[in-house]
């Protein structure tokens, strides 16, 4: 486009910028835009866009940097989910690169004398599932990227060598996992520093964490691809470290690891097409069901913070989490009646069961389907909520200048995963085994109850809450309008649902949509969580009067979102103000 041709666009851009600035909204970008939980990851993504890379190059560069600077959230020893939209073909593909249970895993591996052993599925070698992140990131690049792995991994390698500074978030996370990290000398050496007594402890703010071993591992991956991780010295070190510490990972497990590419889950919300993550995510189904119920219960829209409307939202969420507990598991192992669960008839039935006047007790929804899997759910399950400093995971959203989009959520599960580092490699391994129902019907680390379909089996993928989601423009169902996702364990789906509703129903700009207060219910425990930005006292009282038991929680989640305005083609990005991330883009 010549300079003259750009004038009207510039004038429009300026006008929008002024309006946006006056409203205190996010700034617009004419090129690609990115949101991640770490400034260096967003910067790396932006660099890829500037080098001519696309949304996938940017997202993968950010994911590798996240593995270096946010070891408490995600890493090459973890796994995740991505939705990738290719603007040219208008096709959206899903990549499931989540961890799988090792071959030696078995249903009761975390029980001793029939009782769950605390910590066994979250801390140490026995909690490690077969990692999928490296296979996933490289497959994304190979299938959809434009740049070479060496270019995309360069920022991560540099940061691993040069180091990054300890932030308040790092300290919070390391405090929560200090005891666990101390159990592994290699993890303690890398992520803690000796205190005056010589005990490995949480490093001070500004302390430089350098990871030369990880830099070497990333260098090998950049040169030789995923085989540098799944075979050879890195794989040998992972297997030996885990085995020596009493875990199950074998070379056979690593060799057998394969990603999966299921079709995305699809729904429509107030005229917007939505694509989200299918099982083994339970999050996408919750997004589909809750939005479906809200659309039916409130055809005219969702008034903001109106108690009647919030009550319907909470009741819809409660019911979606019941279905999760009853039916969901890895579809390669259990029959998930997905078609029925997403059908308008089923969603109408769920919505029809909601009493607009009062809260349904979760216990009353436990009546098992005759002979069905819910018969294993226990009425006294919960309450249990994870401590914030133990929660983790991270989300990356990118929409590039051409409209290609990525929503990727990736994790090592608990903060610092299993706290086990494969000796000499810098690879911090996940504790994703905890996302299985170690004892079907009994809550996991996130207080989540899952049933028999999510019982442990060798080679199975544990059920996840991660819900990377793409919302399309009303005007054009092939054009991505919003890429969004969040960490937060069990709270991930409700964080995503509220961000979408804030944009679609309230017309909020993406910064406000991500920052607004949140409410969460997950059926068990039977409590309504309200974050400190959530609700005014009168609204809380109105909800209490309907029978909701309210628990005030400081905050949760870390939504990362990019919005592309269908009318102006300008992009806006937003990183959750609750955390330390950064949203950026190309002018
Ligand atoms: O896949 C899952 O649902 C969990 N492993 C995610 C953990 C998480 O988000 C912790 N968050 N703050």
TrEMBL record:
InterPro entries: GGT_bact, GGT_CS, GGT_lsub, GGT_peptidase, GGT_ssub_C, Ntn_hydrolases_N. Residues 368-391, 566-587 are annotated as: Disordered. Residues 1-25 form the signal peptide. It catalyses: glutathione + H2O = L-cysteinylglycine + L-glutamate; an S-substituted glutathione + H2O = an S-substituted L-cysteinylglycine + L-glutamate; an N-terminal (5-L-glutamyl)-[peptide] + an alpha-amino acid = 5-L-glutamyl amino acid + an N-terminal L-alpha-aminoacyl-[peptide]. Keywords: Acyltransferase, Glutathione biosynthesis, Hydrolase, Signal, Transferase, Zymogen. Cleaved by autocatalysis into a large and a small subunit. The active site is at residue 393. The keyword Disulfide bond does not apply. GO terms for biological process: glutathione biosynthetic process; glutathione catabolic process. Its EC number is 2.3.2.2, 3.4.19.13. GO terms for molecular function: glutathione hydrolase activity; leukotriene C4 gamma-glutamyl transferase activity. Pathway: Sulfur metabolism; glutathione metabolism. Residues 377-391 have a biased composition (Basic and acidic residues). It holds the Pfam family G_glu_transpept. L-glutamate binds at residues 98, 411-413, 435, 464-465, 489. This enzyme consists of two polypeptide chains, which are synthesized in precursor form from a single polypeptide. This is Glutathione hydrolase proenzyme. It comes from Corallococcus carmarthensis. The lineage of its organism: Bacteria, Pseudomonadati, Myxococcota, Myxococcia, Myxococcales.
